[in-house]
């Protein structure tokens, strides 16, 4: 569908599961060379398929990010497209949120996304290449949700970084956009339903039913729903889009 992606090198953080894994599969299907960077991957840069690579990465570790980007550049080439899907969450009310929980969300979701995007942008500029930076934010980057103060703050921060980097990199031909998924069926969402339900006196099944009831399209999302938008943003069709936060929420968020 997007023939131009076959010549691109794509880095996906959090590529080992959930949305990240769906994005990895989608880009591989389009013929791209894809590096999946995930905390659960084995150490070192390893080729796992004809065009597939994996590497262990803690996105909150600045030196690790720079080391991995250097290794990818040396082995595969300059990263043309980066999708920052690595993320975490904690389910706790604001009055009970600890500094450690706050730091975890901000370090991984906000700082981690920024460190990776900054590193890719620096290398694109040095190589005088255009490129695509695609942040995975959330509809929590536009709304507030009970029991998710630190997570919501981190995802709002991602949208702020998106807009600023879009302005700064526009004349370099590097577009910067964010995807704001709604309720997507992933292992992290399942855990959130268990933990979020516990603090509300609900079962995970009750939370899941509540989730579905809030979506105008009548269903929760899949990782493929998000991955399709990532493909579009990476393609030539999106060459005149930058600084945007695109909702993929089944109509649950419309601003």
Automatic annotation (TrEMBL):
It comes from the Bacteria. The keyword Oxidoreductase applies. It comes from Microbacterium murale. This is Meso-butanediol dehydrogenase/(S,S)-butanediol dehydrogenase/diacetyl reductase. Keywords: Oxidoreductase. InterPro entries: NAD(P)-bd_dom_sf, Sc_DH/Rdtase_CS, SDR_fam. It holds the Pfam family adh_short_C2. PROSITE patterns: ADH_SHORT (PS00061). Belongs to the short-chain dehydrogenases/reductases (SDR) family. Its EC number is 1.1.1.-, 1.1.1.304, 1.1.1.76. The keyword Oxidoreductase applies. The lineage of its organism: Bacteria, Bacillati, Actinomycetota, Actinomycetes, Micrococcales. GO terms for molecular function: (S,S)-butanediol dehydrogenase activity; diacetyl reductase ((S)-acetoin forming) (NAD+) activity.
